[in-house]
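Re-run with default settings, no changes from the original entry. Doing this only to confirm the output is reproducible before filing.
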Amino acid sequence: MGPARAVGAARSRRKVPDAAAHEATAETPTGRTWTPRIAAQLTVLAAATFIYVTAEILPVGALPAIARDLRVSVPVVGTLLAWYALVAAVTTIPLVRWTAHWPRRRALLLALVCLTVSQLISAIAPNFVVLTGGRVLCAITHGLLLSVVAPIATRLVPASHSGRATTAIYVGISLAVVVGSPVTAALSLLWGWRLAVASITAVAATVTLAAWAVLPALVLSSDQLASVGRRAHHHRNRRLVTVSLLTLIAVTGHYISYTFIVVIIRDVVGVRGPNVAWLLAAYGLAGLAALPLVARPVDHHPKATVITCMAGLSATFVVLTALAFGPQPTTTTVLVGAGAFALWGATANAVSPMLQAAAMRAGADDPDGASGLYIAAFQVGITAGALAGGLLYEHSVPVMLTASAVLMGVTLAGMTATRHMFDVPTLSEQP
């Protein structure tokens, strides 16, 4: 599933000292349109998410190559993903709080520099221990980057466009799955995994320089500084906690099955051999295509849009569960399963920016911290889902899919029952 009473109101309260007048211009949304400069800034933010997520999931396509080169087993290399998510979950909130008073560009640059250094360490790692160390450095700031990148995007555009700005940067995450992962996998197979990691290093360094060049510093005003970090008290924000809890449940349900997506394609849908890659591509392309379709509705009808996507995601797992409990795959099974996979990719990718936007609206006084809590819940969901999926997979694939369907149903019911979780303020509500 891999973010305005809220952001809009918080922005309207900003007062920037004369010494930072140019930052006021950078953050005041009045009269702003989608200028080429803003488009370039959002492109850089999307590129940052693209290269970070590509680095995160690189081991998926390079497992055999890394195992052969470093002389360790494939399952051991596979632990790089689980440990990565766990480290990101543990470090996100403390690091977001530690950097809460920094100019937002500085926090973003810290994450990108750590990514670049970590990939350089990984590319020259002489053994698995050093490779793991490089991955840990990358994981430490993973949550920080995903926490600040969406609030930065919303600060660059009018409040009425915040949902669209958040969705725009999520294009980078989708491209990491559709383009980044296959490209690094191909590089690993043809010329070795070290070249793939070195390529990520070069791109990460380029994105770091571009972020420094095109993004404003985004210095926080005195009013903003008074309500960030430990002063935010996000754990007492019932609306934000609800968004984060529902996110955790949904992500857990998603990753219970997504972790074994290739097995589901083979054993449930009945697609084997090279055609597996085509179905995975369809999953990713559907997710990429869904983002522009929900960009505008998420600003105007957020609750209806989120619930529609969650209903589609729940229906996907119900269909796949029914196929798993049914007879041997047939031509009809393949067609129905392929359609379910396309719907799975579209809805799972579309829901993530909506939930992050809802989290930032719920914690408008400190959107970075609110985003951090959301990202931490997301990473915990990945870890829990991967671990639970492994246990359920040992029992049976149909039971695994049933668990995903149940958790998605619980999330959908929770979202439907809440009254104000996705509210967007009107102009009259903003001070």
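Residues 3-31, 426-431 have pLDDT under 50 and may be disordered. The chain has one domain: 6-13+21-419.
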